[in-house]
TrEMBL record:
Protein name: Cytochrome P450 4V2-like
Keyword Lipoprotein: no
Source organism per UniProt: Frankliniella occidentalis
Gene: LOC113206492
Pfam families: p450
Record family assignment: Belongs to the cytochrome P450 family.
Annotated region described as Disordered, given as residue ranges: 268-287
Length: 518
């Protein structure tokens, strides 16, 4: 009798496995058929077109650009049994960003590579959980909340100015990227987590290091599907580093949450003023400044998030905010160091808005007046979109306006670089020209031709934050320093080589020199 039960069990498992395999084969056959007219590089049994993109990480960017140039705006790639369709026409993208059948983030590119490190959060979640979290978190990014961050943006821009001052005095050539990272990380710690307490200083320094390394490690693991299995990943030389990064992130966010809960408890007991550690970011009575976390915790809906959910969201925000923003600042400084004419126009505008005052703090009211500076940042984001790829997965077959069909279950990949460098949309795409974004030069350009922050329901929640911070940092730095490239540095923006990771970095560093303005 027992034998019969065991055999029935084995038969049931085998039947399920066979059904699963059958469904998977059917899906692949369907995908092959539906996408037969979409061009792609040569594909071979088992590996598919993996060879077209395999190789050192430094070459990935050039390989994708070459695919676009050779095969056109819609390209398919078979990575083993996984079908990837790269979409780049603005009219197609509009559908990708807005169609309800295309709002799922593929597990393979998101949850499987990010959640072991960050936990679940807005970037990786799907379905009803995602919608609930976005509804709870969005109000904490409202305009008035962002305006409260101006003192933090200014303070951290001044910290950057101090560091640049020392480098100006020494006259040395340096890489702007680590300084941009430090400035961004401190700002994000303060404004997202309200982690500017002196009790967190040493942890915060560790996090600044871990965040950058973390982006590289997550990418390293993410593009090697066999590392999804911990057993195999343990064999990787990066395993210990990865674990350390996870530990640093978890411990930091946990400490921040504990301190916050402690401060709230004291506040409730009316003891905030006597508490030895004043609430630096102002969730206490006397404070004015509130971080995202304070807003979240003070909202009724925010209180429904569990500690695990909160911790995941905070890690997602810190990860999403840091590298993207600091890479933009590094690319921007490098571009204007090369393009002295653009830098001169920025200074002219700064002198007009600040009436020649090179010391005054940047106020929220100044920011909308810095229109040329904003165009220069937009052009930096067009040229070097810091989030180089992102993806969706159709719940059912979706026909694009261009005629191609995205089959159910494939990975729809969006690379802003494909769209941002399309000469039919952007004349002379390799020329760095901020005035492309002048209203009269934008007439007739499709709104989805510029997509550094994605678009639609799953677009970046931090885009207004980014512009406020970057403009404040640039207005503070450029009124005080003149930025140049060294003699052996690139002469044209097109000579800057980016390197692909989860975000886009400057290959070899953004090597610049600064001189004090007189
Ligand atoms: C230049 C800086 C930034 C760029 C270029 C950028 C770009 C993007 C892009 C392309 C996405 C969509 C990703 C996808 O679909 O997988 C995204 C999502 C997101 N970004 Fe940003 N981002 C930047 C800064 C920030 C900042 C400062 C924050 C927070 C303070 C932030 C928070 C998020 C979050 C939470 C999401 C997920 C949104 C959702 O799916 O609902 N980002 N970002």
């Amino acid at each position: 009798m027992l034998e019969l039960v065991v055999w029935c069990g084995v038969a049931a498992v085998l039947a399920r496995a066979a059904l699963w395999l059958l469904a998977a084969v059917r899906e692949v056959l369907h995908q092959l058929w539906v996408t037969r007219d979409i061009p792609g590089p040569p594909s071979y049994p088992l590996v598919g077109s993996f060879l077209a993109v395999a190789g050192p990480q430094e070459e990935l960017y050039e390989k994708l650009v070459a695919l676009r140039a050779d095969l056109g705006p819609t390209v398919k790639l078979w990575l083993g049994p996984v079908l990837v369709v790269i979409v780049s026409r603005p009219t197609d993208l509009e559908l990708v960003f807005t169609d309800p059948r295309l709002q799922t983030k593929p597990w393979l590119m998101y949850a499987s590579s990010m959640e072991p490190c960050l936990g679940a959060g807005l970037i990786t979640m799907n379905g009803a959980d995602y919608r609930r979290h976005r509804r709870i978190i969005s109000p904490s990014f409202a305009q008035d909340v962002l305006h409260g961050f101006a003192p933090s943006f200014n303070a951290n821009a001044h910290r950057l100015v101090e560091q640049l001052g020392e480098l100006a005095d020494s006259g040395e050539v340096f890489d702007a990227a680590p300084l941009s990272r430090m400035c961004t990380s401190y700002t994000v710690c303060e404004t997202v987590l309200s982690a500017d307490s002196s009790r967190l200083e040493s942890d915060r320094r560790a996090v600044v290091q871990a965040v950058y390394r973390g982006v590289t490690l997550m990418f390293h693991r993410g593009i090697r599907p066999w590392y999804r299995w911990d057993t195999l990943f343990k064999l990787s030389k990066h395993y210990d580093d990865y674990q350390e990064m996870v530990r640093v992130g978890d411990s930091f966010v946990s400490k921040v949450l504990d301190l916050k809960m402690e401060a709230q408890a004291k506040e409730t007991l009316g003891q905030a003023e006597e508490a030895g550690e004043p609430d630096a970011q102002g969730s206490g009575k006397q404070g004015k400044r509130k971080a995202f976390l304070d807003h979240l915790l003070s909202s009724e809906e925010g209180k429904t998030l569990t500690k695990d959910e909160l911790s995941g969201e905070l890690k997602h925000l810190v990860a999403a905010a840091n590298s993207t923003t600091s890479d933009t600042l590094s690319f921007f400084l490098y571009c204007i160091a090369i393009r002295q004419d653009v830098q001169a126009k920025i200074l002219e505008e700064l002198d007009a808005v600040f009436e020649g005052d090179r010391e005054r703090e940047v106020e929220v009211a100044d920011l909308p007046k810095l229109k040329y500076l904003e165009r220069a940042f937009k052009e930096t984001l067009r040229y070097f979109a810091p989030a180089p790829i992102y993806a969706r997965q159709p719940d059912s077959d979706v026909k694009l306006p261009s005629g191609a069909t995205l089959p159910k279950g494939c990975v729809v990949l969006v690379s802003p670089h494909f769209t941002h460098k399309d000469p039919d949309i952007w004349p002379d795409p390799d020329v760095f020209e901020p005035d492309r974004f002048l209203p009269h030069n934008s007439v007739g350009r499709h709104p989805h031709a510029f997509i550094p922050f994605s678009a639609g329901t799953r677009s970046c929640i931090g885009q207004r934050f980014v512009m406020m911070f970057l403009k404040t940092a640039a207005a503070t730095v450029l009124r005080r320093f003149h930025v140049t490239t060294p003699e052996d540095g690139p002469r044209r923006v097109r000579d800057i080589k980016p390197i692909f990771s989860l975000t886009l970095h400057v290959k070899g560093g953004a090597r610049i020199r600064v001189q004090r303005r007189t």
